[in-house]
Amino acid sequence: MFFDKQFAEMQKIANQIFENPELGYKEWKTKTLVEEFLKSKNNQIELNYFSTTGIKTYLSKDKPVTMAFIAELDAVYAPTHFCADKETGAAHNCGHFTQITTALSLYAYLIETEVYKNYDFNIAFVFVPAEEYLDLDYRENLRKEGTVTYYGGKPEAMKLGVFDDIDFGICVHAIGETFDEPTIEIGCDLAGFLYKRYHFEGKATHAGFDPFSGVNAYSISTLFNVGLGLLRQQVRDDQLVRFNPIIMNSDMSTNVIPNRVTVGTDLRTKTTAYMQETAKKLDLAAEHSAAALSGSVEIETQMGYLPFVQDEYLNTFVKKAFDKNEEITGLIDDRGGIAAAGDIGDLAFLFPCIQISYGGFTGAIHGDDFRMIDDRFVLEQFPRFVSQVFEEMNGHLDTSKFYKRNYKEYEQLIESIIK
User: Fold this and answer.
1) Residues ≥6 apart with Cβ < 8 Å to 171
2) What's a GO cellular component annotated to this UniProt protein (predicted)?
């Protein structure tokens, strides 16, 4: 009955966050809302802060194993979404607002019932900023100021030691599809990605009087884009390869041959090895496009996020809870993987993680029409289901199936990928 009684409050919070979206490392209103809710449920709560807007709090610390339940605070840059912030362009069309309500609902349930005291593992709730890889100029300024090191919120939290005492993690995420029945998904892996910038250099001359002496950087970028289109035939389908080149900045006018154009693209793949292999092909296409038209190119490579491989062992507990649950009737467990990415992949390098996905939405995820349509499922039934997953885990976790790596090992891996 607890989640039923809490439904109206969760619905109010969901609407408030949805109508006040904020981009990563700027989630000030959302942070305040989370703080106020947690304090209202537990006046003895201790909150630890990190990375501008991140919050971590424990229910207990006395057990030998600690789980992190992770919720993402940020929105997407989508200025044409029907509920986008008119000033910032932020919109909650990836469903993160319901990750927050799920976490808050679970926290309130565990505090009021005190069932967590019977668990043989600790629970830490971690509210993380900046999962979406966007607003990069702002984040680069934060990096130059020394405020952050990483564009992504979870890698930044990893560097700060937020997850040093965590043994396994659970995230949840909206599914970008519409279903006829309450539906969850388990076992869906995510791609990883690099972020590439190609700075094409040409030579500026008068476009009418002396185009013959110029080198058109825009033409080089066009040739590069054509090359990438043809290159798609040479990449493996099973690796979920995606790249999406865009003109990032240029200073062009019609009477001057353009002499500098920057093309940016992400490069998504299922594995880091194929990521490196495909990155070399993109770089060659850029270099030879520039050479073909007598120009040059400077290449920047940044690590985006690591591929995410769901932990099969932890997902067995989700499946057991589903088999006993009579409210949620739809299960997707055979998709395998998709080319979407998230910094949960980076976190899963440190320790086992799963991401339980859930329906209840309509419209295209990251699209202009994305919204929640099954409030009762998303805000009541799904949090209740996650609490049942906790119950399945209690007393049955075999920690010999876990692994643990540290931030230094993560840092070395990233350096080896982008070198």
Assistant:
1) 70, 71, 72, 99, 344, 353, 354, 355, 356
2) cytoplasm
